[in-house]
Specification:
The chain is an alpha/beta fold and 565 residues long. The protein folds into two domains: 4-442, ANL, N-terminal domain (Rossmann fold), CATH 3.40.50; 452-551, ANL, C-terminal domain (GMP Synthetase, Chain A, domain 3), CATH 3.30.300. Helix 9 packs across helix 10. The model is unreliable at 1-15 (pLDDT under 50).
């Protein structure tokens, strides 16, 4: 494949390698705490750092949120949000909500979601966000397991809650943002003494779905803040004058960490867009607000790549930095962005469980298309075998992290056994397979249970998907291993075509021949199925397990975090 001038030769040592290695060796997390607002007793609170520390500074009257649904626009300063979150916190206190109680939000991406999340943190309660698209079972699983005491929602979404209310004995209060909550807020004081929290005290929890069983509640603490604050600077390159847009919903960890906590703790103005994907509206949002930094998902980039007509209508010259997360970024997307947006896309890697970015392509680094980058300072990453022994460069193994960084999850709610299962031989096991090259760049292969073994060879689905995307007819691709009596597994590709291409047998054969040339004889898809859409999480990650289980006629398990499919 040809990736233009931004691809770096394997023999080329990055110019900043020595500086990077020195910073990596010398860094201590303790030094990063100097930028945070701790209380005099050594405690802290995420919400205090996100909002209240800006009181009396030039940031207080600066726009924190420019909210839009594509038609209506509202602006809120940091000062506005401080008062609103204080009022909400006082409403909770009047209802008897105490430190450690769970308060869950079931709302679309509206201003009330942000103020209720941070107001909950201000009194030491544990906040939990849920996607507005959740159905009855997804809601019941989360509200039952968490024992939520309060739920914040609206009239429309409450219709779903009513169906399961009797199964939730611990849910004492349901507040509607378009009914009773505004009156309670108007009566509440806008003054509040924020709760002092230990670094290890839980702040928020997010439920993630696995291949089996119920969703698991990943718990994060107030001490996560130091890593979230610093990675916002290091990886997203945010500065005081930037106008920033994180496209992630706060029901997903990226929407919490880099759509609420990180940017506002750094005093950044950000755009919040509440609406579905629309290329014209997305490009128009960048142009109208003169956005400078954009954090989005590879799926969104690929969707923009399928129809470039809207791109020509808009001036995107204000952009200076683009980053992506959600699933590995295919090299072709980096090439497309450099050609059409005049900027490369800086991919990075992390998980709900890690709580913030752990491996990244920093703004100062040479990008190797397809690589997730290098570990941030303070993170020790390695490729290990099943015995916990670190493997040399070029060898595939389990991607693992030394579990001594601030933002790593503190537990799995009500499931300590599951939590302990993440750790092995002194490492946190991510569940991903990867390799590392001789210059310290990490390369994603696939989820441990996604890697395909065909004719004795191991093939990473991401590699095959990336190659498929270089074919001019392919818009999106998902790849699985399908059981085969002769080869063990064969590669099957599910392909969504670009507009104007017809799903014919001739095109299947053309794509197969193309893949034999691009990859290898054993790595081409022996079966191709054209589809209208692929199953994805709301973060844009292709759910290969759903493709595989449907192919095999099996129960797909919990799909509550999946887009409609």
């Amino acid at each position: 494949m040809h990736y233009s001038a931004i691809e770096k030769k394997a023999t080329q040592t990055p110019a900043n390698l020595a500086d990077y290695e020195q910073s990596y060796r010398d860094f201590q997390w303790q030094s990063g705490k100097k930028e945070l607002a701790y209380f005099s007793d050594g405690t802290l609170n995420i919400a205090h750092n996100v909002l209240d520390k800006h009181l009396g500074t030039e940031t207080e009257n600066k726009p924190a949120m420019i909210w839009t649904d594509g038609l209506v626009e509202q602006r809120f300063t940091f000062g506005d949000l401080i008062k609103t979150t204080n009022r909400f916190a006082n409403v909770l206190k009047d209802l008897g909500v105490l430190k450690g109680d769970r308060v869950f939000m079931f709302l679309p991406r509206i201003p009330d979601l942000y103020s209720s999340f941070l107001g909950t943190l201000k009194i030491g309660a544990i906040a939990g966000n849920m996607f507005a698209a959740f159905g009855y079972e997804a809601l019941k699983d989360r509200l039952q397991d968490s024992g939520a005491k309060v739920l914040i929602t609206n009239k429309e979404l409450f219709e779903r809650v009513k169906e399961i209310k009797e199964t939730l004995p611990e849910l004492e209060h349901v507040l509607l943002v378009d009914d009773d909550l505004p009156e309670l807020m108007n009566k509440a004081s806008d003054q509040l003494e924020v709760a002092h929290m230990a670094e290890s005290d839980p702040a928020y929890m997010l439920y993630t779905s696995g291949t089996t069983g119920k969703p698991k509640g990943v718990v994060h603490s107030h001490g996560d803040l130091v890593q979230q604050h610093l990675t916002t600077q290091w990886v997203l390159d945010l500065k005081k004058e930037d106008i920033y847009w994180c496209t992630a919903d706060p029901g997903w960890v990226t929407g919490v960490v880099y759509g609420i906590i990180g940017p506002w703790s750094n005093g950044i103005t950000q755009v919040v867009y509440n609406g579905r994907f629309d290329p014209d509206l997305w490009y128009g949002t960048i142009e109208k607000h003169h956005l400078t930094v954009w954090y989005t998902a590879p799926t969104a980039i690929r969707m923009l790549m399928t129809d470039e007509a809207f791109l020509k209508k808009h001036d995107l010259s204000s952009l200076r930095h683009i980053a992506s997360v959600g699933e590995p970024l295919n090299p072709e997307a980096i090439v497309w962005a450099e050609k059409n947006l005049k900027l490369p896309i800086h991919d990075n890697y992390w998980q709900t469980e890690t709580g913030s970015i752990v491996i990244a392509n920093y703004p100062s680094m040479d990008i190797k298309p397809g690589s997730m980058g290098k570990p941030i300072p303070g993170i020790r990453a390695g490729i290990i075998d099943e015995k916990g022994i670190e493997l040399p460069p070029g060898k595939e193994g389990d991607l693992a992290l030394k579990p001594n960084f601030p933002s790593l999850m503190k537990t799995i709610w009500n499931n300590e056994e599951k939590f302990k299962g993440y750790f092995r031989d002194g490492w946190y096991i991510t569940g991903d397979r990867a390799s590392k090259d001789e210059y310290g760049y990490f390369w994603f292969v696939g989820r441990a249970d996604d890697v395909i073994k065909t004719s004795g060879e191991r093939v990473g689905p991401f590699e095959v998907e990336s190659a498929l995307l270089t074919h001019p007819a392919v818009a999106e691709a998902g790849v699985i291993g399908k059981p085969d009596p002769l080869r063990g597994e064969i590669i099957k590709a599910f392909i969504k075509l670009k507009n104007g291409n017809q799903p014919t047998e001739e095109l299947k054969k053309e794509i197969q021949q193309y893949m034999k040339k691009e990859l290898a004889g054993h790595a081409y898809p022996r079966e191709i199925e054209f589809v209208e859409k692929l199953p994805k999480t709301r973060s844009g990650k292709i759910m290969r397990r759903v493709l595989k289980m449907k192919e095999l006629g099996q129960d797909v398990g919990d799909i509550s975090t999946m887009e409609e499919y």
